[in-house]
Every structure is written in C-alpha cells, then in structure tokens.
Design brief:
The chain has a domain of 76 residues. Helix content is 51%, strand content 5%. The chain contains three helices and two strands. Strands 1-2 form a two-stranded antiparallel ribbon. A hairpin with a 5-residue loop joins strand 1 and strand 2.
C-alpha cells in the first residue's frame, strides 16, 4: 500500500460517510455524481483488499486428509529470497495435492 492509497478501514469509513451524504439528498446533482463516483472507487478498493486478504488466507491454510485446517508458512515472493536462505525456505511437498474447488472446503461460506 502506497502512502496515497487508503487502508481498508479508511476506505470503509469514507464510503460510509459518502452514503450518509447521498442519503440526505442535499448535494447538487453534480456533487452527488462526484460522491457516487468516489464511492465506487472506494468500494473497488475495499474489494481489492478483501480479495488480497482472502488469497493470503488460502496461502496460509492447507487442509489435511481429515479435513482439518493447518497453518503453513507464508512466503511472500518479494521478500522470500532476501529473508530466507534456501536451506530455511519451506519445501514444497510432492505428497500434498494442490487444493481445487472440488477438494477444498468452503471455510468462509462463500
């Protein structure tokens, strides 16, 4: 996240304020359109951040043979080579199948 991009929480707060402004019906049509456009941008930002968090969760959790969730180490591509020597990096297991939509339980009800 760059300094100009708001956090998820800031985006959500700003979005709630825009909704309040638009629900009051006081702004002009042009002001309403400007606020609506900003709200759409904030909503897209929130969805992007939630999708990124969801991807990270899926990278951190694997499901064992009994269907139980197990944490696995998270290795970020940008920092993996800097922070971990090859001997310390987690090894990919040939025994663990890659999760698919068929064998991966829906942990979040989506």
């Amino acid at each position: 996240m760059t300094p100009t991009e708001p956090s998820f929480e800031d985006s959500l707060t700003q979005l709630a304020l825009i909704i309040q402004i638009l629900e009051r019906g006081q702004p002009t049509l042009e002001e309403s359109l400007t606020e609506f456009e900003r709200g759409v941008q904030l909503l897209q930002r929130c969805r992007f951040l939630l999708d990124a968090a969801d991807r990270r969760i899926h990278e951190l959790v694997e499901i064992d043979e009994q269907g139980r969730a197990r944490l696995k180490p998270f290795v970020h591509e940008a920092t993996a080579t800097k922070e971990m020597s090859p001997a310390k990096r987690p090894k990919k297991s040939a025994k663990t199948p890659e999760p698919t939509s068929e064998n991966e339980p829906d942990l979040f009800g989506s």
